[in-house]
Amino acid sequence: MLARVLEKISKGDTLVVVRIDRLARSLSHLLEVIERLEAKGAFFRSLHDPIDTASPQGKFTLQVLGAAAEFERALIRERTKAGLASARAKGRVGGNPGLRTKDPAALRKVRLARQDGYMERLNESAQEWVPHVRRLRPDMAWEDVLRIINGPLPHGRHWTQSRLLRAVKAYVRDGFLPAEVLGRAGRRETDDRLPAIVAAIKGADPEITLQAICDRLESMRERTPRGRTSWQPSSVRMLLERAEKLGLL
């Protein structure tokens, strides 16, 4: 639920909670959430706590909490180091005994746990990439699919091609995506590339405006048919008409 809320929040919005313990699992988690809000130009406010990042007092409180969180992390690190040193001095070695002896059952258990954790993280971001992959592959090259996926995302959350391919293979393996999406992309005429990209953006959001498509193309650093960097609605309309003639819409 929190991930969906953070995804929908935009610049100028304020996330309001009754108490901070209803939002975050820990102080460090709270600071992480607030950092994500600030990156979007949004604010945070707690009704029962003196935190309102839209005010100077709230920002000061947040800075104090950040310093306290860093101090707490430093104490935990020091205590952990001291505990490990004391255990080693007494001849005790930490860790999983099965892993130290390379027991196959223990190794398999760890591998499955890591795989489950990876799939949980993928599921949290599935709405960002699965619909595009399902709809565009293998008709469109991975490079263009990647640019379409990254278009609406903040820079810090951009996918790399290797990371996207790993995610797609995991979903294909578990039956969430058809194996056909991993097939070789068909060759497309150079003149058909831009209509295909515009059609993909329009297909993902049928209600999107021409200006919004222009903004998306500019965020993707896609050049116009004449090689310019600034897009106009008339150019997008022309490409949509061509895409319709090509059967891409």
Automatic annotation (TrEMBL):
Q: Name one GO molecular function term.
A: DNA strand exchange activity
A single Gene Ontology biological process assigned to it is: DNA integration
Gene3D superfamilies, from UniProt?
Resolvase, N-terminal catalytic domain
The superkingdom of the source organism is Bacteria
* Keywords, alphabetical: DNA integration, DNA recombination, DNA-binding, Receptor
Note the PROSITE patterns from the entry. Answer: RECOMBINASES_2 (PS00398), RECOMBINASES_3 (PS51736)
List each copy of the Resolvase/invertase-type recombinase catalytic domain by range.
1-91
* Pfam hit, one: Resolvase
> Known PANTHER family for this protein?
DNA-INVERTASE FROM LAMBDOID PROPHAGE (PTHR30461), SERINE RECOMBINASE PINE-RELATED (PTHR30461:SF2)
The molecule here is called TonB-dependent receptor
Species:
Pseudodonghicola xiamenensis
List the lineage, top down: Bacteria, Pseudomonadati, Pseudomonadota, Alphaproteobacteria, Rhodobacterales
